[in-house]
């Protein structure tokens, strides 16, 4: 199979941690359409990774995001895999939270999933195959005092994904939700947790490998909810 014949994978939310690792992992067998706000990061990855294509976009802007997805379809073809990995949010209790922060979080973390699904899942249904994978967090199941600017959007993302899964699984489309219960190893997180041991952090390449496994599960045994966490973490 030549590079031009490879199936298409869309990765939404290509940050320096999990997103970049997903690009490296999936570009081995897919043409990867990368979406993120940082054009510089995407352009650097497109140079570094053969088969990766840059599509800068703020997915919180619904119209711009839909136009970007349509452009990907026109230029690369209909994606057979879509990975929803954006994250926006801020710490703070409900009485301290700027409502605009939660609104942005809901647009980026949840509404963008609806746009992604509405644009890409119907062609998958028509083909009788395809995968929509969401990366999420413990906040999708547990609220906390400090995470009111973040957790509600993850809960919305998770329940939306579950609704989509129950609708399209009988039509051959696999929808899965990966709970990432831990801190991804990035420079910013290292700065936020400077005194933690090495095994406190989750390695992005390992997270990407679990995403690869979920995307390629056999049809006879699909997961919806999967969870990963460091061995030390209490739950």
How would you describe this protein?
The protein has 235 residues and is of the alpha/beta class. It has one domain: 3-Layer(aba) Sandwich (Rossmann fold). 42% of the residues lie in helices and 19% in strands. The protein is built from seven helices and nine strands. The protein has helices spanning 18-26, 39-48, 62-76, 99-127, 151-168, 187-192, 204-215; strands at 8-12, 31-36, 52-56, 81-84, 130-137, 173-180, 183-184, 201-202, 225-228. The strands form two sheets. The chain has a seven-stranded parallel β-sheet with strand order 3-2-1-4-5-6-9, with helices on both faces. Strands 7-8 form a two-stranded parallel sheet. The N and C termini lie far apart (44 Å).
């Amino acid at each position: 199979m030549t590079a031009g014949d490879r199936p298409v994978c869309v990765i939404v939310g290509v940050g320096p941690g999990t997103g970049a690792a997903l690009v490296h992992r999936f570009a081995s067998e897919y043409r990867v359409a990368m979406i993120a706000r940082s054009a510089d990061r995407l352009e650097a990855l497109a140079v570094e990774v053969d088969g990766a294509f840059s599509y800068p976009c703020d997915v919180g802007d619904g119209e711009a995001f839909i136009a970007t997805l349509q452009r990907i379809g026109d230029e690369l073809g209909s994606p057979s895999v879509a990975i929803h990995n954006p994250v926006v949010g801020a710490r703070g209790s409900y009485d301290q939270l700027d409502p605009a922060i939660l609104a942005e979080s809901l647009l980026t973390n949840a509404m963008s999933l609806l746009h992604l699904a509405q644009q890409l899942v119907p062609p998958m249904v028509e083909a009788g195959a395809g995968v929509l994978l969401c990366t999420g967090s413990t906040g999708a199941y547990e609220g906390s005092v400090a995470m009111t600017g973040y957790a509600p959007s993850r809960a919305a993302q998770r329940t939306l994904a579950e609704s989509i899964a129950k609708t399209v699984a009988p039509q051959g489309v696999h929808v899965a939700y990966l709970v990432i219960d831990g801190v991804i190893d990035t420079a910013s997180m290292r700065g936020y947790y400077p005194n933690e041991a090495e095994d406190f952090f989750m390695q992005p390449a390992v997270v990407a490998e679990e995403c690869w496994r979920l995307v390629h599960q056999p049809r006879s045994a699909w997961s919806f909810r999967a969870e990963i966490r460091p061995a030390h973490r209490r739950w």
